[in-house]
Design goal:
Structural class: alpha/beta
Number of domains: 2
CATH class of the largest domain: Alpha Beta
Number of helices: 9
Order of helices and strands: EHEHHEEEEHEHEHEEEHHEEEH
Oligomer: single chain
Shape: globular
CATH superfamily of the largest domain: Periplasmic binding protein-like II
Distance between the termini: 44 Å
CATH topology of the largest domain: D-Maltodextrin-Binding Protein, domain 2
Number of strands: 14
Largest sheet: 6 strands, mixed
Radius of gyration: 19 Å
Mean pLDDT: 92
Low-confidence stretches: none
Amino acid sequence: MMKTVILGTRASALALAQVELTRSALQVVFPGIEVEVEKFVTQGDKKLDLDLLNTKGGGKGLFTKELEVALLERRIDVAVHSLKDLPAGMPEGLQLTAVLERAATADMLISKVPGGFDALPQSARVGTSSIRRARQLQWLRGDLQVAEWRGNVQTRLRKLAQAEEFSAILLAQAGLDRLGFDTASGVIEFEGNAFFATSLGDRMLPAIGQGAVALQSETSRPEVAALLRALNHEPTWRSVCAERELQRLLSGDCTLPVGVRTEHIAGQMRMTALLFLEGVAEPIKASAEGASPEAVAAEVARGLGA
């Protein structure tokens, strides 16, 4: 067994929280193993002026490439990612090896006004860097003004406090929870500011892979794969395999405006998806259920016109 494992991660607070989850999981299963962490600044972290709401395919690999290069050069053993950042296709020689247990998949509305989504003022300005979130927001409420909103969680909360013209932003519940925010209370407190937090889990479909931590390794290193597969959470694995297969069939990357919810009920998998086409306000909706992740994804893809 390997005595030391080097984990690669982005340097944001959320990425570091996820790498600590990975470190803890490794040391529970393999007591005594040494875990080192290497931090990377990705192109997505550097290019804060890039408008992801209007980028066609430009988001591919923005938050993963530097880690993947380090894997191939064996400067790290494992790359730890937010799964929703991983493009459907991987560089030759790399694989998605395991996933940790999925956290909450819901998007959350972080607002200056109480009452949730329907209480937002007419024509309120809402910030997000996700085209999936933007399209769903405008579909649900055509009056909302959606604008590009970049940065890590803390930066976005700080900007919301300072930007008088904005009423709210959207963030993933999983990220907020992992950073220690009390989302269950309905209030997010940050640097002396209090915002109202409302789950949109019953209104919006999450991103492919949302809430899951991905562990990526080289295909030529079975000793690393053996370590990581001991951490793999099988229900999460089946869900994200179905979602990533749908992503592949749609020929999309992490900027594709598609929302997906995957559930496990009585041994069956049920997937529901919304796909937004350019220039069309109403999304295409499809759903399917079955035991095979690949078959369920294929049926949903057909329903979406792929």
